[in-house]
Amino acid sequence: xxxxVNKTTLILVLLATTLCAGAQKKELTDDQFFKSDFKGxxxxxxxxxxxxxxxxxxxxxxxxxxxxxxxxxEELPNTGNIKKMxxxxxxxxxxxxxxxxxxxxxxETQLTKDSSTKINPIVSPDNNYVAFTKNNDLYCIKIADxxxxxxxxxxxxSLMNGYASWVYTEEILGRASMYRTFWWSPDSKHIAFFKxxxxxxxxxxxxxxxxxxxxxxxxxxxxVGDANPQIKIGIISPEGTNLIFADFDAxxxxxxxxxxxxxxxxxxxxxxxxxxxxxxxxxxxxxxxxAKKELYDEKQKTWIQLEDGYERLHFLNSSKNVILESDQxxxxxxxxxDSEGKxxxxxxxxxxxxxxxxxxxxxxxxxxFTARSRENTARIDFYSVGLNGKNLKRLSFGDxxxxxxxxxxxxxxxxxxxxxxxxxxxxxxxxTSGKIIKDLGDSxxxxxxxxxxxxxxxxxxxxxxxxxxxxxxxxxxVNMDKNKKxxxxxxxxxxxxxxxxxxxxxxxxxxxxxAKEGLIQVVMDHRASGHFGKEGVNYMYHNLGYWEMKDxxxxxxxxxxxxxxxxxxxxxxGFSYGGYMTCYALTYGSDVFTHGMAGxxxxxxxxxxxxxxxxxxxxxxNNPEGYKTxxxxxxxxxxxxxxQIVHGIIDDNxxxxxSINLISKLQDAKKDFEFMEYSGGRHGWPGNKWLHxxxxxxxxxxxxxxxxxxxKMMLR
Length: 716
Known about the structure:
The chain is an alpha+beta fold.
């Protein structure tokens, strides 16, 4: 349900209606609250398996397997009689007891027999080789005779072949890369790899109290303004011959994104970016000579996102064209380019954000993709459009957020999993011609309507300057009395293009119990969260913290004025960037926010890494005022209320130095706060220590917001 702030009367009517409707309903039991046992209220949806062909797909209902006929909607028990599409099986390399094994066609083969640590084994596209790294060198095994070839020989603590530095993994390639920086060509004739020299990067010392003499770890971590790793891009054959390096100056102040091989393996497309991160170039590199040629040059006034989950290039097989993603207009869109980098046409355009390409049907000339809904930015919709930029169609239906799209191989059918804040998740089979063929599942079970569940709504609050309708997802207290005031718990992350407010159904015991206890639970997003494209995100350039706090404050003030929120109990909580926002709220924003729980927090951006921080903030040398105004440490005099500070002692991402500096400043100012550190904790920590942290937050909520003894069943 979508409500706007100028409909206050409607909100109160809806709340009153909810109270009347809920009066005759059952209350949740302790098992439902504390074990999240919602049997009879909600149920599991089926699981979608692999496609047999374009009109048959496997479905699992519980432990039973079925084949769904998409033409008729009929489901038959899976007897294994339907022949699957003929595709050669891709071999899978994996590690076991320190060695590398290969599994193909159900047969496992051991490829190595030594005790050294091997990392990221990857099978070549033709199933003839496995490449991996060991001791920061790149190796390759020929599967037929298990011949091992050492492709590089100069690996050391600071010189890494095929293995990434910390900042490249965390900020550019993404954690899913698992530090891998080598890439097979499609024809299996070459391996491209990064040779990373980390020696110029300063070392940061991380310590803990383990053992008699403690624990010490040295991490090469470039903080803002520091030297970055130096990268050379190598290309070599799997037999170890014909090693060349692409024609780039490794000592230049630059970044490289993950390279892309062309489908025929004859060229490597390399993403290059300057240190200021406002100029992206794409070069094609000859894998035989290393010679490069510029194909694409994009400049923006703020910054350009290089990588970290952002798949910029999508090569087409039948032509030599490529789809390129760019947000240079202020909104992420798709563009068709030829093999020389020249733009042929825009595929999508307008003020909406393309998220992911699902599939390209080159024969029909159709691109299938997901995007933030053109009607509601808190929802994801599924679309198709011609490669020529014509015939844009919305394929998903209704006022729902589509969290998972499963498209058939030829693009004639798709299965969508969808919901909104007031509609439990459903699954439906749809044809791309627009026909709903069959509802496959509804997570709402038979007893759903019998229970008094907390009401969740998606609201929109106008920003102070009137430019944006800011999204806010609110779970109201059960049996809410409009004449009472209620404490507020706001869970946020914040940051550029990192919104967390979605029009999606959720149900869990903690959420429902806090609603019963009388807590207003809120998720909110600011103008730069991604809802309003790069156009909105650009507000944060050289100015982290300010716009988030301005927009969050506007939403909180609306809750106080219109949503029965208690202005003396406004609690904000988050981890990492969310921890930064929490600390900033209790200092810079303390006229609005009264309580906070901050975990793994950045407290001053000079303590964080080059690539992430400089992308938005520049350096302290070229943006001294921005670093000053964004620092929590410069607003200690405004601190009031109660802040809980939590940090892992050996956090190698956001170093505990951030919390230490904040604590020291608070102590010097004789301010009252709470602090808990976790030995062995990095940017998060497992096991009982994590449960201890969750309990710590629960106790904080009861003590300061609910003002009563903690319900022991809420403790883990």
